[in-house]
Each structure stands twice: as C-alpha cells, then as structure tokens.
Design goal:
Helix 3 links the parallel strand 4 and strand 5. The longest helix has 16 residues. Strands 1-2-3-4-5-7-6 form a 7-stranded mixed beta sheet, with helices on both faces. The chain is of the alpha+beta class. The chain has one domain: Aminopeptidase, CATH 3.40.630. Helix 1 runs antiparallel to helix 2. About 30% of the residues are buried. It contains 4 helices and 7 strands. It binds coenzyme A. Coenzyme A binds next to strand 4, helix 3, strand 5 and helix 4.
Length: about 170
C-alpha cells in the first residue's frame, strides 16, 4: 500500500491511486464508503479525486469537477490532521490543475468555485484568506451518504458559493 512507501513529512497532494483510495477508506473516519465512490467518479472522468498526505498518511481529500467554472467539492481533512495545512494544500493543488487544463488562459480568466456551509465560518475564513470571495449565492442541497457502519443518512445543507479568479 502507498501508506508504507515514500515517507512524507509535510502536506503532499496527488491524484488518487487505487492504493490511496484504500488507505483513505481504512484510515479516515467517515471515508470507508465515500472513498470508493469518489474514486469511481474519477475513473469515469467526472472529477479529479485529490488526496492529501501528512507524515505519509492519507488524511484528506477533495474532488475537482470538470464543470465551467470548475468546482472543488467534498473538501475534508481527518479531524486529527486539521490545522496543519492539508486543506490549503488541496486547494492549491486544485488551482494548479485548473491552470494546467488551460495553459493559454489570460490573467483573470481562470476561476475555481467552492461551497461553504452557512454553519461553517472557520472554513469560510480559510477560503477568504487564500483569495476566495463570497458570491451571495446560497444553494440548498440534499444528499445521502453511507457512514462507516454502512448506515445511510440523508442530509440537507445550505452552502454559499465562493469563487476565486486569477
Ligand atoms: C475546513 C477544512 C477542510 C480545513 O482543512 P485544514 O487542513 O484544517 O486546513 P489548513 O490547515 O490548511 O488551514 C487551517 C484553517 O482552517 C480553518 N478551519 C476550519 N475548521 C477547522 C478545524 N476544525 N480545525 C482546524 N482548522 C479549521 C481555520 O480557519 C484554520 O485557520 P487558522 O490557521 O487561521 O486557524 C477541515 O477543517 C475540515 O475537513 N473540516 C470539516 C469538513 C468541512 O468543513 N469541509 C469544508 C466544507 S466547505
């Protein structure tokens, strides 16, 4: 498994490999079922599924869509690894992929959006600090997920879209 190779001492990000998906599922609380689904979305060409490592362990992830503008979805870092730069590293890596997808873009033509829960001011502060601005557009989303015990949950969230242009 990739967890056992190439020890890493700082936040690193890469596109998810099959081993990385297994490592996320095994070690990140709540990711047992999510990781396989996101990896399938990447395999189908719907997203780039990004994984962040800290001290060699898979500890965070996010999905970059191919929408126009692209969106960073399901950004999450394991509770024990928060506050160590993994969330910021995932966003920076996604911005790099956006640049690679359109190397000819002129300044101001590239953009990336992400949604932040209205009840999540800590995450919103992080995004604003690294250049994302509030759009005032709030969407209500209902989705289901399967927890680590295999129980399905339905959740309704209100998220505000933030966007960065560069
Ligand atoms: C929001 C989140 C992805 C940030 O990841 P992270 O690896 O902790 O982020 P970084 O280390 O790069 O940056 C830390 C900043 O994140 C913010 N933050 C938000 N929630 C946090 C948490 N529970 N713990 C630590 N930092 C948090 C803080 O503002 C912090 O800023 P500071 O350095 O001024 O204190 C992560 O806290 C998380 O997974 N939270 C739960 C799920 C979630 O809210 N996802 C985002 C949906 S929009």
């Amino acid at each position: 498994m990739s967890q056992d190779r190439a020890p890493m001492t700082e936040a690193r990000v890469r596109r998810c490999t099959p081993d990385d998906a297994a490592a996320l599922a095994a070690h990140v609380p709540g990711a047992r079922h999510y990781a396989a689904g996101a990896f399938d979305r990447q395999r189908r060409g719907e997203v780039d599924f990004l994984v962040a490592f800290h001290a060699g362990l898979a500890a965070g992830s996010a999905e970059l869509t191919f929408d126009d503008p692209p969106e960073l979805k399901n950004l999450s870092v394991a509770p024990a690894s928060r506050g160590q730069g993994l969330g910021s590293a995932l966003i920076r890596y996604a911005e790099g992929l956006v640049e690679n997808r359109d190397p000819e873009a002129r300044p101001g033509q590239r953009s990336l959006t992400l949604g932040v829960g209205l009840e999540n001011p800590g995450a919103a502060r992080l995004y604003e600090r690294i250049g994302y601005v509030r759009t005032g557009h709030v969407a209500t989303t209902t989705y289901t997920y399967i927890d680590d015990d295999g129980v399905e949950h339905t959740v309704t969230e209100q998220d505000e879209d933030l966007i960065k242009r560069w």
